[in-house]
Amino acid sequence: LETRLHNVEYASGKEKDPKGGCFCLAREHGLSTYVPLCYGCGLVLCNLNLPHYACPHCGELFLDNARRSALVAQILEELRRQVATEEEERNRAIEEARKAEGAFPMLPGASGTQGARRPAGKGTATGPQSSHKVLSLNSTTKKVTLSSYTDTPVSSRPPSPAPEEPCRFPPPREISYVKQPPDPEHPWKNMQFPDLQYIPPPKDLNTHSKQQ
User: Fold this and answer.
1) Does residue 176 sit in helix, strand or coil?
2) Rounded to whole angstroms, how far apart are CA atoms 139 and 133?
3) Phi/psi at 162 (nearest 5 deg)?
């Protein structure tokens, strides 16, 4: 959200998405919560079409002065909600860690992690840094050397995989349509396929004999 906010604040909005945008018309991906419909051509935009880019079809700008201010206010509100949610989850995790260790529960409104120890597990360090000193005697010079070492715990969390690129739908091919005006003498004529001929279905001889 912070990157999106920076792009909306400082981008010119004239460039199209270098990835080509997406033309799924919100059938494959969710509808964009920022610009769900192009103001110029009416293209339905999914959430892969970022608001700081122009329309992938007609190049309409979405970042004029009024729209830019509205988008900034919307993203700031989303960012505020996300920070509040993350803070609640952090406090909940601290509370659960205290309960698991048998400590007194945290008072409502208390913040900070002093005195709270987190149980070791997947994705967490095995413990605080520990240091130790070693005395060594050089057999040749008969001198004593004092060396200090610090052990840094290594996290067991594997590296996070790179997010997969979502599937983007390319723009549709050119729509085939009749570019010449209709024939006034035969307005029902198919101008796209003028050589078509009507062939009536064969008559059912049994049905015809019964009617007689």
Assistant:
1) coil
2) 19
3) -65, 140
CA distance 76 to 70: 10
DSSP letter string over 90-107?
Answer: HHHHHHHHHHHHTPPPPP
Scan for tokens 């960012």, then name that residue.
Answer: 79
Count of H-run helices and E-run strands, the chain: 3, 2
For residue 37, count CB atoms less than 10 angstroms from its CB and return exposed for 0-12, middle for 13-18, buried for 19 or more. middle
Q: Tell me which of 136 and 58 has the higher pLDDT.
A: 58
Q: What is the pLDDT of residues 153-203, one digit of tens each?
A: 555 566 666 677 788 888 877 766 667 777 788 777 777 777 777 788 887
How many whole angstroms separate alpha carbon 4 and alpha carbon 6?
5
State how far the Cα of 149 lies from the Cα of 138, in Å rounded to an integer: 19
The tokens describing 177, both together, are 């349509």
Distance set, CA 41 to CA 33, 44, 188, 200 (Å) = 18, 9, 31, 43
In the numeric block, which tokens belong to residue 81?
A: 């909600």
CA dist., res. 37 & res. 53, Å (int): 13
The predicted model scores a pTM of 0.49
Residue 54: name the closest of 28, 21, 86 by CA: 21
- How many whole angstroms separate alpha carbon 95 and alpha carbon 202? 82
64 within 8 A of 14, measured Cβ to Cβ: no
Report whether 194 contacts 188 (CB < 8 A): no
Residue 44 burial (CB count, 10 A): 15
